Records
---
Amino acid sequence: MTRDPYEPPTGEPGPAPLDAARLSDEVLATPAEGLEHRPQTPKRVLVLGAGMAGLVAAYELRREGHEPIVLEAQNRVGGRVHTLRTFAPGLYAEAGAMRIPRVHELTLRYCDLFGLELRPFVMGNPRTLVQIGDVRMTVEEASREPERLPFAYAERERGRSWEELWLEATEDIRAAYDREGEAAWSAIVADYDRYSIREFLQSRGFSEGAIELYGIMSFRETNMNAAVVEQLREVIGRSFEDMQEIVGGLDLLPQAFYRALAGSIRFGADVHALEQDAETVTAHYRTPSGSFSVTGDYAVCTIPFSVLRKVEVSPGFSRGKQKAIRELFYNASTKILFQVRRRFWETELGIHGGTTTTDLPIQRIVYPSHSDPTDERGMLLASYTWSQDALRWGSMDEESRIEQALEDVARIHPQIRQEFEVGDSYVWYDDPHAGGAFVLFEPEQQTRLQADIVAPEGRIHFAGEHCSLHHAWIQGALESGIRAAREVHEAPFAAGSTTETTRAR
Amino acid sequence: MTVDPYEPPTGKNGPAPLDTTPVPDEVLATPADGLEGRSPTRKRVVVLGAGLAGLVAAFELERQGHDPIVLEAQNRVGGRIYTLRSFAPGLYAEAGGMRIPRAHDLTLEYCRLFDLELRPFLMGNPQGLVHVGGVRMRAAEADADPDRLGFPVAEHERGKTAAALWEEAIVDLRVLLQREGPAGWDAIVSRYDQYSLQEFLDLRGWSQGAIEMYGVMNFVESDLHNSCVEVLREDLGEAYVDMQEIAGGMDALPNAFYGRLQDRIRFGAEVLAVDQDDDAVTVHFKTESGRFAERGDFAVCTLPFSVLRTIEILRPFSHEKEKAIRQLNYAASTKVVFQVRNRRWETEDGILGGATTTDLPIRRMNYPTPDPTTRRGLLLASYTWSQDALRWGSMDEESRLEQALDDVAKIHPWIREEYEVGASHAWYSDRFAAGAFALFDPGQQSSLQDAILAPEGRVHFAGEHCSLYHAWIQGSLESGIRAAREIHEAPA
């Protein structure tokens, strides 16, 4: 899924996009050319999970003549790319990922491969609103007169927007990156991995008021204890510039993979145990009709560590991997969606896309970037929250969640009560197959855990956004899926798995 | 509820209890003497919430002749003191607070006032088990040879238990407090409030392996990024030394308050909005039969900030209070309880009370105080915090019990035969708690505590989150008395 800790409200494009954790040309060439060809006996590869990482791994392995078997617990592909279509005919909304930054070239190349049409996803929009306490203004006014926002700034911070303050705070890091490119990253991580966002801002002389401003405007107020390198990587990597969306819904991407893999996927297969020996890997899974197992030469495990924690593994993974599985921090995310009879924000306020920012529990409202001109109806992302805020929405039942969100939205748009038709919501932390929304390092976790997160364990290889440094992004799922597929593709063959799927006991 | 980030596996008692933020004598005398007597201007006080903070505030206000009315959304008193009794006759288990340290004198005073019988709550038990990295041993064995646990500790840490390493790490702070008394806390907070537990241990030169060992053995592996001051306060305050439980269940304490306040409590009243003007506070609430309002001269708000966040404040609180409400971090906690036909941990494993520590998702089991009158019993099959607790919370009850059974069976294979029924409580998913307890992120004590406590006009605040005894009954009682006194002493 996507997130935007740094959303330039004015929508001005920055300098030429440059990715912070740039992918090699070899990886970028994969959508067009596939993995490097090497003649070999086909391998049977168990792929656990049909999210983007599992799909791309299976797809690339199959292209090289291997035999992937994808086990998916749910009855859909895409994982945290999940387009909701429970609304009036033609309407849909994204419960998970909703946008692709221009710098995520690998993602865009797969869209291109499958002939998917893209269009801009509007980020900043000067006409959207900022409502903090009883102060309400447009984003344009807030950029022009930031001192009107009710925060206890220090004198030197007065009259400066939060983006200016952030740019100044990261100036030297940005300069190092411009000077040294990707090579600068190891130094940045070495210097800053210990810092939470809050500590980083304090070390750069931010006042309490400016930290509060930054937290609210970047939607990070309850993530201030997360590792600042996550934030630096996204911002310096320009993850929030020139965003795209897939026309028709983001699920068209996993569905395109599905068409190429339909026969290799087993739906409704909930993996509960993994076993391996020197030659094979066996996955044990349950379906409503019983317990089964399937054996392969290798496995690609894309199950989030939060879910993998409950899967029985024999022989046990290394202590380092076990520690990473236990400790890796998962963020929460909740989205609440309203179907409305009339898109009053367009007709009455002239708002076409963009985000309204507030200190209310809903945190932000995201307006659709494009709407069907022949239909007055529309979808509103009434609330999009992370961390503690998202967990609290998650702890309510659906009915109270919608009712409470309506109250919040009504404080900004009183018209909502009349125009609201139906609501829906998605709480990623409560989805037993996701076990959280995405990985967000705590301070030091990159240094302490990343090597163990990515390392294969015998014949089991790992992929998913959590096994990349593009946490929360489709790009991370794809990049790690290709890496795992390559590891398996290049591994020596061991004859082992001649057994078919067997009914257990 | 209670927490134990530092549970000495050997059960050895430390030095004489010394609480970190001693309750002033005046407060400690409250259970026996009540608030200081004053001119009897009778005040109408709306108390929001019938957890321990609300109960003690209402109780002490009524004792002084005031007129409290308590609005409680649920149909029980006690809040996060919650004794589950949905088991075989006579059996019960604690979903929330389960123990009282000897150092929590104020809590013990109220138990005495209401004549509640206490008995020891066994913490460490050398016969308890440790199951880490697939290796199983007795707590006594892990203590005698901690290297067997297999954590990659540094050379200089070899042969030392997590408890011993921790004691070395905080000995200078212990000395500081012995020398300077409670005043030493100012120095500790100003020096360490910005540090997470992880950073504190880094600073003390711990290896990664030792930090991992400490995290696993003390159940704080998912809390390493919270403020270290929380753990320091508990350990230096002897919060895990000489624990007691109330015979018959912890709910006997809130029920005793209830006995004195029955007519003053309105159950099923869910607060929607709080309003005030210069003379009065109005609290709007709903029941299943409609919407109502209650007016008073003052209010005591004991709602957790996580819940208060969704309540409409018609005359806005100060900016600083709003910020504290938004930012204060709440920890999660989940408990899973099994009723078993035979307490085979006693008969076969020789474990009479205490805990088993694991690196499995269940993290730890707690065994009840042995009861010679029955072979049935309740096992606290899992007690988790933070991310671990949230994950249990995100499962439905059935999967939660099934998954906990899988884990427990790795340690006690006989559990499948003996298991009868299970129950669980995920505090983050309880919408009237919305979290287990406040747990500061680094820096939050310095940046938020004043705003957390400050009254807003005629609304005063209490609850564990409005004290420095986060997660403990003592914090609810201390803050409830403070809020009651503020109102008692306020001009009418």
---
Amino acid sequence: MCEIIVITSGKGGVGKTTTTANIGVGLAIRGNRVALIDTDTGLRNLDLLLGLENRIMYDLVDVTSGRVPYKKALVRHKKYETLYLLPTSQIRDKSSVNPEQLISLCEEMKKEFEYIIIDCPAGIEQGFKTAIAAADQAIVVTMPEISAVRDADKIIGELGRADKQNIKLIVNRMRYQMSEKGDMLGIEDINEILSIECIGIVPDDEAVITSTNKGDPVINMEKSIAGQAYRNIVGRICGESIPFLKPPKEGFFSKLKRLFGVL
Amino acid sequence: MFDVLMKIFGKSEKKSGEIAKERLKLVLIQDRASVSPEVMDKLKNEILNVILKYMDVNKSGVEITLANDSDSVALVANIPVESVHHSPK
């Protein structure tokens, strides 16, 4: 059985690609055969986040246009051996792949993989329509920020119109201290407004940036709180019931500093 | 010093998170109510067909639009009636 999951958000910069990379690595660590497909043609980045940028020979457009079989374009990760990337083209644009081509590609790849994760481009134009075409599950990534939640709402509507029933939510870059003070949208607010099942809250964590610098997703960093959040998300995708992380407690000194406004 | 005291004893003004939530709710009411012209046309024709069972209307004068108010959305229809049937068709 293969599950095809699209990671989407509407708005750019909320962490679709980071989420794709982390979920992909997490599922692979658990021993699943995982294929990641980057559909952000023209602005590819998934290769960078996985540290695979120097090993790309062929891309998605080469495959869908019939120049090479997909297996030739797949890049196998050396560290996570059951993880494969199908990168996209950096020189073509989003009109180079249409929904039918992606559906038939996934149909073929289904036989070889337990999970196919599709990284969707920002926007609601053709690139989005192509990316969601083959998916039986969608994960919408948002941030506790007014514009990101509005775009997530729009995307949820579009997914509904495309007959996608299975839609989950991930709230990325949560800053608990701000939302506790009332200076940011809280999880309850977002859940109330979007009313779809939330499968993870990823705290804002500098380790996400340092891990991206190195090209090894944060899920692999034992001590990172964002890494732990991603490990929990992967568990929930695999059907485990895992309680949500407790917001980290603010230390005495930082509270004192905040109180006196020395921050 | 005054600022520090204000911070300690709490401010009376609304928190920005709360403002964000209210603004978001309002904008989503409007977003979710925005309907494509094709759907609007279809809706207009179906409403007209129902009305025509009961009365004659001036079809060219019919106006059906979604009106956005600051905190609600209304479907506004302006349908000039020419005559009312004695019994529904």
